[in-house]
Structure formats: C-alpha cells, structure tokens
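Hi C.,

You asked whether I'd gotten around to modeling the 331-residue construct. I have! Everything is below, sequence then structure, no commentary in between.
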Amino acid sequence: MIPFEYHRASSAQDAVTVLAERPDAVFLGGGTNLVDHMKLGVVAPRLLVDVSRLPLTDVTETPDGGLRIGAEVRNSDLAADPLVRARYPALSRALLAGASGQLRNLATTAGNLLQRTRCVYFQDVSTPCNKREPGSGCSAIGGYVRYHAILGATPHCVATHPSDMAVALSMLDARVVLQDLGGERRIALADFYRLPGDRPDRDTVLAHGQLVTAVEIPPPPSGAKSNYRKVRDRASYAFALVSVAAELVRDPGGDIAQARIAFGGVAHVPWRAKEAEKVLRGSPATDDSFARAAHAELVHAKPLAGNEFKVDLAQRTLVATLRSLSDGASR
C-alpha cells in the first residue's frame, strides 16, 4: 500500500476545506469499499480526510413527514430504524439484502451510495479498464459479463452499480444533500448518478471537495405499498444479478393510481423504470399489466453475449415484485 497522510475532520466545513485544497485527497467514512481498493491498488490517495466522527448519524423526521438520514448513519441502524421499517419497507429490505451484518455495522449511508462497481476487471489492475484508467479500454466486452449491464451501457463501459440501498432510494425519489465551500445544496438521486457515456470513470456528478452530508426522502403516498426483491447467484450475501424496488398505490376501484419502480444490477446506475411506470398508471393490477410494463421497460435492453438471461430475469422479477404488492393479482 502506498503511504498516505491522515486528517480527522472536526466539522463538515473543515472536511470540505481540507479536501478542496488537495486534489489527491479523498473522504474516508466506513472504509468498506475505499480500503479494499487501496489494498488492490485501484486507487492511491495521498490524503484521507476522515469524516466518520462527524455528527451526521441521526435519522430524523422532516416537517412534511419525510426522513432526513445523516451521511454517517450505519446501514444496520438504518435498516432497523422504526420509521424506516414502517414507512419505507423497501429501503429496509434493500439494506438487509446488501451485505453481511459485520459490513452493515460499519458501512455508512454516503459510502453505500458512493461505492464503486464490483466489475472484476475494474478491481484487477493488470487489465485495461476505462473506469479505472480512461482511454485504456473495456476488458469486460468480450469477457466475463454475467453481472454486467443490459441497459444504458456504452462501448466504453458495461459495468453495473452494486448498491442495493441506492436502488430503493431511487425508487423513493430521494435527494442527496451536499456541502462544499459554497454551502449546502440538494440534488435528486436520479440526477446524482451518471451513465457511462465516454467518461465511465465519473460515477456521479460530485465535484472534488463536495461532501455528502445527508439523504432526504419525501413522505410516502397515502396507501402506498413497497417491496424490494433481489435475485443473486447464492442465498448468502452476493451482488444482484437483478433487483427491483417497487411501490404501488391503488385507487378505490383497485386499479393502479401510482407506481414507482427502480432496477438494480442492470445498468451503470440505479435504473428508474419510467416506461414501466407509465404503462402501470391507470391499469388494473393484473399479471398481464405487470408483464406489459416489464416488456415496455426491457424492450430496448442490449445484453451482451453471456448475460442475455438477464432480460427475461428482469421481466420476471418485476412481475413477481408487483404481484407481491397487489395482494395476489389475477392472472
């Protein structure tokens, strides 16, 4: 491991000030992703700015009935929080599906959102990777792609985002709260992540020196039911082949009044399923409606040789998740 300096931030303002002055510095929270990558040689920061002891560990109700989640809230604490479990069950289930108890006890809200892809080529410094070294090539294309993207990919990168929590937060229309030298601002999670384009090394729109201090979730719609379903290669903790976070609100007649859906494991970002949502609004809560919605979202998927199965798997997972929210849809 390359030697590095260490600074324990005394405040959020101190953290962003120190980082802004050092282009070779990074923030350190729980370290469950960053430290691994330092050991592998994927990254080599010269200064770690420790933000793990900042007072960003509260989950509080907002005046409108939503939640504000501090950036340093541990994943285990967030999954077990009574307000999260009662109002946002999809988020709690996503967190519990994301990692072992040991990792959840250390991993933070901000760190989970900012974790890098688990593409085997990104983590192997002996192979070309545009995400790790722009312009070097994408070794996954023509290689092992079982876990790779079927939506939103480009010839520059076919990796997928690994977070479960981010998928649920995308579905819930969460906002990320940022602080930099200019003060505090908010950005919708849907605008926070970037598709690869020709710059796959940039996962988010964060600029150097910007610190994630919180995540805010709006109140759930009246009568909403939500769930998170994850399909993986083994029952123990593994990254998603496909995952779905979904929420339905039904009108008095039983039809779908509102729908929010996000996919995980299929794209460079948590994939908000806008086409599927459009099909579902005003439709009856039946398997036929669910299948039409799934087809509308996946019809433009572009699988690679080796992960074609993910298209059908994503469609079936969405139908099963929606069925679980509709008290047993008619077939």
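If it helps when you're writing up: The chain has twelve helices and twelve strands.

Thanks,
B.
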